[in-house]
Amino acid sequence: MQPVRLAQVLDQGASGIGMVRVEYVGRRMATVTYTGPTGKQYQVSRSPTRKYIWMNERDARYFCGGTEFRRATPAPVAQPTVQTPVVEKVREMTTPPPPTVKEVVKETAPKKRGRKAK
Question: What is the pTM of this model?
Answer without folding.
Answer: 0.50
